[in-house]
């Protein structure tokens, strides 16, 4: 019998316990990975292509205060600005649904491609969006959810404007980080139930990355001391602004993760000491046979490490499989669209497992080191 | 039956080192379970705790938040002098036409900004909301650009302490007082003069009307009247119901809570099973002895399940105790209804503690079921022979 088969036999001697220990480590690591991914999704939303050339301009008071249309001409004149489009929240509810399941914004049809070029549509989509006033384009996730296709009509009841509007779907897009939104035409809103002369916010496309900072500065300065001061910022900072609004949710998830890790250490350490206590006599015999302390340490460490690593493979692997191949939108009622298990998070979880394996071996190893052979041989338990 | 029970009870205490880790583990799981549920309860409590039963809230039909609702001056004029509306001693109708708007304010820790609800109202509006009490400074003077901030909100945002000033909409506002909203939705608001709010934020319309009905009967009549009057595309509801329905924000927290409860309970069941198997394994001879003494299999089975449940119940108590210090601690997140910061408290209700205990005991029973079966099925002779 080689040393490694000895360790393996020992670990699997009590198969039930090995299975239970591995499972509890696996469940905890699954949970840890899930929480870490959720935390990452909340704090670091996925950047979209083209974000580095986009500027968001909102009312300085808050995002919910409108901006006057007259700002448009002044923004377009700023050097480095390539395209400007309004972007107005409609807050529509679809089919008497309780809440809003997707967001809708009014914008300029001819600016869709220049400002949000990453939204890819079947040929003809852009032309159709430009052609009809009541046209709209719909994200693929929403279109799939409601089985909508090009040419269908949808009616939305606005929670912001008095009344409802009917749209005809001109195209279905995909390719943005969140293919759920619906985009329709600002002029359609203005002519029906909107407030002409006001828009929700502006989105700008700048000509090059070097133009970003000067354009942001110029836009902010342009409306200082006017009735509608603005806050211009990069798309990234705009997204981070939303995250700041989530408040203490981040702290909550981070503290739960800590508790999960602590519980994990506790349970695994206790399992290991149970396993060692059970074979105290055998370890005493090994000692009597002339095995050294460090060899006994190695036996215990290898066994505990093996258990946690097996748990890690199972837990992290199943989390990866579930979130990579499962439909996260359905699982979380639409709260998360992407739920990417990054290699960094998997690495972190694996590290936790490795440390766990070592820590759990410490207490039993110390007990074995301290035991005298005679007392160890006398143990009955 | 009496002997195995005391036997099991004493076992839990005697083998304390082995059971302590399990108790602590289950305790932590229960603490997390209770705390996340306490958040959802706190959010719902602050919504359902808002309003006066005598008041009727009027908003634009189809709006989901006061900040996106609009009531025009003309509409206000139409219903202001309705006879169903109570009047004060001077004969002034008790109607409050409020303006609610959101402002983006920096957080106190310097980490970003968040939207805060500002309510513009009149002294009548304050009288209609007796839940809100001034705790320091003074109320704002009508006609002045002064605000009174909820004390709980002031702890979360910069420039909200009494005496501070902050800038919004190109103007400077002075904080002259702090109020406490008695754990209602008003704890998430900044209050100032209605007309100053309208002028500052360039609002022609009001956001909502709050009226005091002369009687419960009158309240029904107001609601029915608004429903049928074609000139008024408005929605009237008892104030308590209006706020009580604003609980969408609690949903993600509930989803998180349920997910955690499921995943952590599975982990806890495994851990409890491990402990109970070890406990049964090391007592094989004792179990054999009990059987020889005449205790029946089902008694052994029951006693081990009870031991597991007891172990878990201790964990449950520990978990509730661990969670308890956070009761009443206020926290905040963005409300999906109002799109602004909503402040609420962890609320550990007795029912929640009972749920936590039940959760622990169920984990204990499921975790000890298989080990207990094993104990009950041990062949007597072999059990006695075992070391």
Report on the structure:
The complex is a heterodimer of chains A (381) and B (387). With 381 residues, chain A is of the alpha+beta class. Chain A has helices at 3-11, 15-43, 71-76, 112-115, 125-131, 140-145, 186-191, 212-222, 235-245, 249-278, 280-289, 293-325, 328-331, 343-370, 373-378; strands at 54-59, 67-68, 81-89, 92-94, 104-107, 120-121, 135-139, 153-158, 164-174, 182-185, 198-199, 201-206, 230-234. Chain A folds into 2 domains: 3-45 and 246-378, no CATH class; 61-228, no CATH class. In chain A, strands 1, 3, 4, 5, 6, 7, 8, 9, 10, 12 and 13 form an 11-stranded mixed beta sheet that branches. Chain A has a two-stranded antiparallel ribbon with strand order 2-11. Chain B has helices at 2-14, 16-48, 73-80, 123-127, 151-154, 194-200, 216-228, 239-244, 250-281, 284-292, 297-323, 350-377, 380-385; strands at residues 55-60, 95-106, 113-121, 133-137, 146-150, 165-168, 171-180, 189-193, 208-212, 234-238, 330-334, 341-345. In chain B, helix 2 packs across helix 11 (297-323), helix 9 packs parallel to helix 12 (350-377) and helix 11 (297-323) runs antiparallel to helix 12 (350-377). The longest helix of chain B has 33 residues, at 16-48. Chain B contains 13 helices and 12 strands.
Please tally the helical runs of chain B, counting DSSP H or I stretches of 4 or more residues: 13
Q: Mean pLDDT of chain A, as a whole number?
A: 88
Instruction: Tell me the helix content of chain A.
Output: 40-55%
Q: What number of structural domains do the residues of chain A give?
A: 2
How far the N terminus sits from the C terminus of chain A, by CA atoms, comes to: 26 Å
Can you tell me the overall shape of chain B?
A: elongated
Short note summarizing the structure:
Chain A has about 375 residues and is an alpha+beta fold. Chain A has helices at about 5-10, 15-45, 70-75, 110-115, 125-130, 140-145, 185-190, 210-220, 235-245, 250-280, 280-290, 295-325, 330, 345-370, 375-380; strands at about 55-60, 65-70, 80-90, 90-95, 105, 120, 135-140, 155-160, 165-175, 180-185, 200, 200-205, 230-235. Helices cover about 50% and strands about 15% of the residues of chain A.
């Amino acid at each position: 019998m080689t040393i490694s088969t000895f360790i393996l036999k020992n670990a699997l001697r009590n198969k039930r316990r090995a299975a239970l220990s591995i499972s509890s480590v696996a469940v905890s690591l699954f949970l840890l990975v899930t929480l870490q991914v959720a935390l990452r999704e909340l704090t670091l939303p996925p950047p979209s292509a083209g974000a580095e050339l986009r500027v968001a301009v909102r009312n300085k008071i808050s995002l919910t205060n409108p901006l006057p249309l007259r700002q448009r001409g002044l923004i377009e004149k700023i050097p480095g600005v390539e395209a400007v489009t309004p972007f107005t929240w409609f807050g529509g509810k679809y089919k008497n649904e309780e809440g809003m399941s997707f967001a809708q914004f009014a914008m300029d049809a001819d600016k869709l491609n220049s400002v949000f070029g990453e939204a890819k549509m079947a040929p003809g989509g852009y032309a159709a969006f430009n052609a009809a006033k009541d046209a709209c384009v719909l994200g693929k996730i929403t279109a799939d959810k409601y089985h909508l296709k090009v040419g269908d009509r949808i009616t939305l009841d606005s929670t912001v404007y008095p009344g409802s509007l009917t749209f005809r779907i001109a195209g279905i897009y995909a390719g943005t980080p969140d293919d759920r939104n619906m985009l329709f035409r600002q002029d359609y809103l203005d002519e029906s139930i909107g407030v002409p002369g006001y828009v929700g916010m502006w989105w700008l496309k700048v000509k090059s990355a070097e133009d970003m900072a000067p354009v942001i500065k110029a836009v902010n300065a342009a409306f200082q001391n006017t009735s509608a001061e603005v806050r211009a910022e990069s798309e990234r900072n705009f997204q981070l602004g939303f995250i700041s609004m989530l408040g203490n949710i981040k702290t909550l998830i981070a503290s739960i993760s800590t508790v999960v890790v602590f519980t994990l250490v506790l349970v695994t350490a206790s399992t290991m000491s149970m396993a060692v206590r059970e074979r105290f006599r055998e370890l005493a015999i090994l000692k009597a046979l002339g095995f050294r302390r460090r060899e006994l340490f190695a036996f215990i460490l290898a066994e505990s490490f093996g258990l946690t690593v097996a748990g890690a493979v199972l837990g992290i692997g199943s989390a990866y499989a579930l979130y990579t191949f499962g439909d996260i939108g359905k699982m979380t009622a639409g709260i998360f669209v992407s739920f990417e298990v990054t290699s960094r998070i998997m690495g972190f979880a694996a590290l936790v497992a490795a440390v766990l394996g070592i820590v759990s071996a410490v207490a039993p190893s110390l007990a074995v080191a301290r035991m005298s052979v005679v007392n160890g041989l006398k143990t009955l338990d | 039956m009496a002997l195995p029970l005391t036997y099991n009870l004493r076992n839990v205490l005697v083998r304390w080192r082995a059971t302590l880790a399990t108790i602590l583990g289950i305790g932590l799981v229960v603490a997390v379970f209770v705390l996340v549920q306490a958040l959802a309860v706190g959010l719902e409590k602050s919504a359902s705790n808002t309003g006066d039963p005598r008041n009727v809230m009027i908003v634009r039909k189809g709006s989901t938040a006061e900040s996106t609702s609009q009531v025009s001056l003309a509409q206000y004029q139409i219903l202001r002098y309705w006879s169903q509306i109570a009047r004060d001693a001077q004969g002034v109708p008790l109607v409050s036409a409020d303006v609610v708007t959101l402002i983006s304010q920096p957080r106190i820790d310097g980490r970003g900004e968040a939207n805060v609800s500002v309510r513009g109202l009149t002294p009548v509006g304050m009288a209609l909301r007796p839940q809100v009490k001034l705790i320091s400074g003074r109320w704002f003077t009508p006609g002045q650009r002064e605000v009174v901030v909820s004390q709980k909100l002031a702890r979360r945002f910069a420039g909200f302490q009494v005496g501070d000033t902050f800038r919004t909409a190109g103007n400077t506002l002075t904080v002259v007082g702090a109020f406490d909203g008695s754990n209602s939705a008003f704890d998430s608001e900044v209050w100032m003069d209605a007309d100053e709010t309208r002028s500052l934020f360039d609002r022609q319309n009001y956001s909502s009307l709050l009226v005091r009905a002369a009687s419960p009967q009158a309240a029904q009549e107001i609601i029915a009247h608004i429903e049928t009057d074609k000139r008024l595309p408005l929605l009237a509801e008892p104030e308590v119901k209006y706020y009580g329905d604003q609980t969408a924000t609690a949903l993600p927290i509930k989803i998180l809570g349920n997910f955690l409860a499921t995943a952590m309970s599975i982990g806890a069941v495994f851990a409890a099973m491990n402990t109970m198997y070890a406990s049964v394994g090391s007592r094989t001879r004792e179990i054999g002895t009990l059987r020889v003494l005449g205790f029946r299999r089902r008694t052994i089975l029951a006693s081990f399940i009870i031991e597991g449940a007891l172990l878990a119940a201790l964990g449950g108590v520990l978990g509730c105790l661990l969670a308890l210090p956070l009761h009443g601690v206020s926290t905040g997140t963005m409300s999906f209804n109002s799109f602004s910061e909503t402040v609420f408290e962890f609320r550990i209700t007795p029912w929640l503690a009972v749920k936590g205990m039940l959760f622990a005991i169920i984990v204990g029973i499921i975790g000890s079921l298989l080990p207990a079966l094993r104990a009950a099925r041990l062949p007597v002779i072999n059990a006695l022979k075992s070391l």
